[in-house]
Amino acid sequence: MARSHNLSAKQILVLGGGFAGLWSAVGAARKLDELGLGPEEVEVTLVNRDGYHCIRVRNYEADLSSVRVPLDDVLGPIGVRRLEGKVAGIDLAGQTVTVTIANGQRTLPYDRLVFALGSQLLRPNVPGLAEHGFDVDTYNGAARLNTHLQSLLSLPASAGQLTVVVVGAGLTGIEVATEMPGKLRALLAQANTMRPFRVILADHNPQVGSDMGESARPVIEEALAALGIETRLGIDIVAIGPSGVTLKSGEEIPAATVVWCAGMRANPLTQLFPVERDRFGRLPVDAFMRVSGVVNVFAAGDVAWAMMDDRHASVMSCQHGRPMGRFAGHNVVCDLFGLPMLPLRIPWYVTVLDLGPWGAVYTEGWERIVVTKGEAAKRTKQLINCQRIYPPLNGNRQEILAAAAPAPQAPPGIYH
Fold this sequence. Notes:
Elements: E1 10-15, H1 19-35, E2 42-48, E3 52-54, E4 68-70, H2 71-75, E5 81-84, E6 86-91, E7 96-101, E8 104-109, E9 112-115, E10 119-121, H3 129-132, E11 133-134, H4 139-150, E12 163-167, H5 171-190, E13 198-203, H6 213-226, E14 230-233, E15 237-241, E16 244-247, E17 252-254, E18 257-260, E19 264-266, E20 283-284, E21 297-299, E22 304-305, H7 318-336, E23 350-354, E24 360-364, E25 369-374, H8 375-388, H9 397-402
Parallel strand pairs: 1-2, 1-9, 2-5, 9-21, 11-18, 12-13, 12-18, 13-14, 20-22
Antiparallel strand pairs: 3-4, 6-7, 7-8, 10-19, 15-16, 16-17, 23-24, 24-25
Helix pairs in contact: 1-7
């Protein structure tokens, strides 16, 4: 942004431009606006690796044209500075962050820090994964996959030319797999040809959707069967090559496309913090989003775990990342000025899983009890993915700030 850095102002630094990071920055700007404090007194800076807020949960879709929102469209109207670069280090004692930018490095001081660098796909040491695997972890990864799919018919004919193996039968893998038949049919229609294709959903677990519970699993299985998606469960993939995958049993599955969707971990920079992290590498935070035992540092989203109620911790999702960000942004300003902070508590939990052309499944509660399925659930999913989780895009300062109010949204609507 054009406005120069104000070294005399207090500095709030937000790392990450995903769901938690963006809303942390907007939440901080909202509270500062409420207090009547301008950038000459407190400056909010957001650091992100590129210039976009990615609606990451849509990366499995065929059309990626609207999954990236220019950060400046949201941050510019509310006076938040943006720095494009990759976080290289954090000096917790000295309260500085080192950022690698296009022409070198910059060291940014902070009075308060919000760490919101998100999560990344867990890439185990499977031979050939880096060279031959695809993913939807990032926009660039998703675009690369779609470009590859468009090239399939130009490849030399082979047994697995039109076979896609999706590894990981969790929520991301299921959404990738159920969208895949539509992508392949569109490809074949463009070429005016009719050829058989295969989509295989593979996992080491004995069941699909192991996190979805007993209520939703039959719905998922029904959708997979209706879409003609094969499942290979209870298997381990030990190698990936240009022409397919090799299983631990020695069996080979010919496939020109392997999409890895198995497992997520918090950004590895969480290791810089002198705290005990959970099994996903996340930092423990209190109800105000303060990192336990680290002064002047807040964390939100996939890098943090907080109790959402008396029994359940946050999950790595935009459902929790967005409110965690809004509360972190609000509270970081309150903490800076010694004002009362607001605790985050979300007494409800829903899951809406896209199941491609078949529809979707909508569950409520941590037990994931099915409420709606098929087309009704699909309408709820589209409301969430295409509207609810987007920031205001009209450049209206007051609307953008209002969207960051520190209050959990009500559950999304249910259609019948």
